[in-house]
Design brief:
The complex is a heterodimer of chains A (117) and B (114). Helices cover 0% and strands 54% of the residues of chain A. In chain A, the strands form two sheets. In chain A, strands 2, 4, 5, 6, 9, 10 and 11 form a seven-stranded mixed sheet that branches. In chain A, strands 1-3-8-7 form a four-stranded antiparallel sheet, with no helix packed on it. In chain A, a hairpin with a 2-residue loop joins β7 and β8. Chain B is mainly beta. In chain B, the strands form three sheets. In chain B, strands 2, 5, 6, 10, 11 and 12 form a six-stranded mixed sheet that branches. In chain B, strands 3-9-8-7 form a four-stranded antiparallel sheet, with no helix packed on it. The relative contact order of chain B is 0.33. The model of chain B has no long low-confidence stretch (mean pLDDT 91). Classes of the chains: A mainly beta (117), B mainly beta (114). The interface between A and B is medium-sized, with 25 and 20 residues.
Chain lengths: 117, 114
């Protein structure tokens, strides 16, 4: 149990276009979902935290107008990279915590590799 | 501020030998500590956690970690390494007691040679 999926697994887009990445909890309801960004050979950097039905909380330095997060249901959160530029190319990973659980674990998706040309 | 440090960028070990991946932490209050593993182009997989209780925590795939409060360490260990253990390992600490946010270390690449 506790499977998180992401779609797409990789995407290539042209500079100036927008890209949407989906994060789904497949077999549980997610209290909270997190979005991370990982650069090559670097650690995960938390971008934002989202809860179903409320606005996402962004970490310092993350542009909320550029990285739009929508948490439409307890099983789906989306990250939209608007007006993408080459410097937005990265590996984006989402995670979720299980509603009602006290395990303190985050369950991670497989990641989405975004390449902006 | 909470933080974790992984002092080694890479650890090399021969298959069959014991392995240790180091992690030290700095927290105020009781630490909630985690180890995750990442395979190439994949998300993170949970290995184990320490919240409270026994200092020796056993996790997935034969891994274990020892919580040492006096040394503020949470080193990951395995008695006998496998080539398939080769991956990137992250230590993480919960940012504070009232949040699920995690702070990750910089990661340690484990290379197990046959």
């Amino acid at each position: 149990g506790a499977v998180v999926s992401q779609h797409p697994s990789w995407v290539i887009c042209k500079s100036g276009t927008s890209v949407k990445i989906e994060c789904r909890s497949l077999d549980f309801q997610a209290t909270t979902m997190f979005w991370y960004r990982q650069f090559p050979k670097q650690s995960l950097m938390l971008m934002a935290t989202s809860n179903e039905g409320s606005k996402a909380t962004y970490e310092q330095g993350v542009e909320k107008d550029k990285f739009l997060i929508n948490h439409a249901s307890l099983t789906l959160s989306t990250l939209t990279v608007t007006s993408a530029h080459p410097e937005d190319s990265s590996f984006y990973i989402c995670s979720a915590t299980r509603e009602g659980a006290s395990s303190y674990e985050q369950y991670f998706g497989p990641g989405t590799r975004l390449t902006v040309t | 501020a909470q933080s974790v440090a992984q002092p080694e960028d890479q650890v090399n070990v021969a298959e069959g030998n014991p392995l240790t991946v180091k992690c030290t932490y700095s927290v105020s209050g009781n630490p909630y500590l985690f180890w995750y593993v990442q395979y190439p182009n994949r998300g993170l997989q949970f290995l184990l956690k320490y919240i409270t209780g026994d200092n020796l925590v056993k996790g997935s795939y034969g891994f274990e970690a020892e919580f040492n409060k006096s040394q503020t360490s949470f080193h990951l260990k395995k008695p006998s390494a496998l080539v398939s253990d080769s991956a990137l390992y992250f230590c993480a600490v919960r940012r504070s007691y009232n949040t699920d946010k995690l702070i990750f270390g910089t990661g340690t690449r484990l290379q197990v040679f046959p």
